Structure formats: structure tokens, C-alpha cells
């Protein structure tokens, strides 16, 4: 099989799939950070001056969440790579642990759940800010 690229000696390509996943999560964190920075610029201007400070809340929450997501992506990539190397036969010679202990479970969908909750909360918060600002503008 010449000319078909490098051969993989195990059931997976060691490290590349978790790395691609980490890069995708980093792009997601970057998109959240950019959206948060935009909201820091726009929301305080939308609200009446008495409530302008509340316009910084969604942006600050989004920036903190983006930093946490960036860090969690790296930790997940390291855990997934370690899990792949420790559980799949043929992945790395001698990587299987000796003894009757069962392999640790792979990283789950906690990051996806956290991102979903963050997006829903951020959307509800932003809608609330727009509704309150329009009610205050119509009342005054």
C-alpha cells in the first residue's frame, strides 16, 4: 500500500482527533469572547443611563465563560488522549495497565451541556435587557 499516506499502527490516529476537537472548542470560545466584547460595547449604550451598568453583565459573564471553556477544552484534550492511549489495544505498545482494574471512562458531554446552558442563559439575559430598555424608553 504505497502512495496512500502514512499507515496508522493502531485503531486510531494518536492525538490528532482530540487535537482537532480541542481546536474546534477553542474557536467556539473565541466566538463567545468576541460576541461578549461586542455586547460590552453595545448593551451599555442601549440602556437608559440609570441602568447602563447592567449592560456590562452579559459581556462580563461571556468573557469569563469563554476563558473557562478555553481551559476546559485543553483539559479535555489531555484526558481524551490519555484515555485513548490507555484503553485501546495497539494504540501504544505497553500502554495497557496490568491488573484487573477497569479503564477509566472517556470524557463525557459536560462541556456541551455547559455551553448549551450558557447560550440559553445569555440569550434570556440579553432578551431581558432589551425588553427592560424598551419598556423604560416607552414609559419615559
Number of strand segments: 0
SSE order, one letter for each helix or strand:
HHH
Helix content: 55-70%
The best one-word shape is elongated
**Span of the ends, CA to CA:** 77 Å
Query: What class, by secondary structure content?
Result: mainly alpha
Beta-strand percentage?
under 5%
Overall pLDDT metric: 76
Overall structural domain count: 1
Largest sheet: none
Give me the number of helical elements.
3
Q: Which regions have little confidence, pLDDT < 50, spanning 5+ residues?
A: 1-8, 92-103
As a whole number of angstroms, the C-alpha radius of gyration is 23 Å
Describe the structure.
It is a single chain. With 140 residues, the protein is an all-alpha fold. It has one domain (16-94, 107-139). Helices cover 66% and strands 0% of the residues. The longest helix is centred in the middle third of the chain and has 32 residues, at 56-87. Residues 1-8 and 92-103 have low confidence and may be disordered.
Concise overview:
This protein has 140 residues and is an all-alpha fold. The protein contains 3 helices and no strands.
Amino acid at each position: 500500500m504505497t502512495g496512500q499516506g502514512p499507515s496508522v499502527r493502531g485503531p486510531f490516529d494518536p492525538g490528532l482527533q482530540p487535537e482537532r476537537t480541542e481546536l474546534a472548542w477553542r474557536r467556539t470560545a473565541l466566538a463567545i469572547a468576541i460576541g461578549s466584547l461586542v455586547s460590552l460595547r453595545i448593551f451599555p449604550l442601549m440602556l437608559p443611563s440609570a441602568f447602563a451598568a447592567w449592560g456590562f453583565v452579559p459581556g462580563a459573564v461571556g468573557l469569563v465563560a469563554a476563558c473557562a471553556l478555553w481551559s476546559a477544552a485543553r483539559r479535555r484534550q489531555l484526558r481524551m488522549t490519555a484515555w485513548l492511549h490507555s484503553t485501546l489495544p495497539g494504540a501504544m505498545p505497553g500502554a495497557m495497565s496490568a491488573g484487573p482494574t477497569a479503564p477509566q471512562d472517556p470524557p463525557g458531554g459536560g462541556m456541551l451541556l455547559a455551553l448549551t446552558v450558557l447560550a440559553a442563559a445569555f440569550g434570556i439575559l440579553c432578551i431581558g435587557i432589551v425588553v427592560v430598555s424598551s419598556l423604560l424608553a416607552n414609559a419615559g
